[in-house]
Automatic annotation (TrEMBL), chains A, B:
It is found in: Membrane. It comes from the Bacteria. Pfam families: PQ-loop. This is SemiSWEET transporter. The chain crosses the membrane at residues 6-26, 38-56, 62-79. It is a multi-pass membrane protein.
Amino acid sequence: MDWISTIGYLAASLTTLSFLPQAFKVITTRNTQGISGLMYVMFMAGLVMWLIYGVLIEDAAVSMANFLTLVFALPILVMKCRKG
Amino acid sequence: MDWISTIGYLAASLTTLSFLPQAFKVITTRNTQGISGLMYVMFMAGLVMWLIYGVLIEDAAVSMANFLTLVFALPILVMKCRKG
C-alpha cells in the first residue's frame, strides 16, 4: 500500500472511529442535550447513500467505513429519539 | 453525470450538510451538554486527512466535501471547548 492510500485509510479510520466516543457518551450518561437529532437523521441517510454507492462502485473501503459509521451512529440517534 | 455518481454526490451532500443543524444548534443555544469533544477532535483530524488525501489524488469532490464539513464542524468544537 502506497503512502497516499495510507493517508486515505487513516482518514477513514479517524472519521469512522470518532463516533465511538459520542456513542459511548450518550449510552453511559443518557444525556442527549445539545445533540441535534436532525444532524443524525441527515448524516445517517447520507451514510446509507455512501454504503449503496460503495457497493455499486465495488469499493470495499467505502462500503465498510460507512457501514461501521452507521453502526456507531445508530445508538446516538436512537437515544436522541428516546430522550429528546 | 451517470446515476451512480448522482448517488455519490447526494451522499456527500447529506453527510456534509448534516453538520449545519448541529452547528446552528450549538451557536444559538450555546448548549454543548451531551456532545463528545473527543468525537469532534478525532472527526476533524480525520477531515484534515481526507482533505490532504483529496488534494493528493486530485479529487475535487473529496477535497471540497471535506473542506466544507471542516468549516461546519469547527464552530461545534470551538463552542465545546469554550462551554465544556
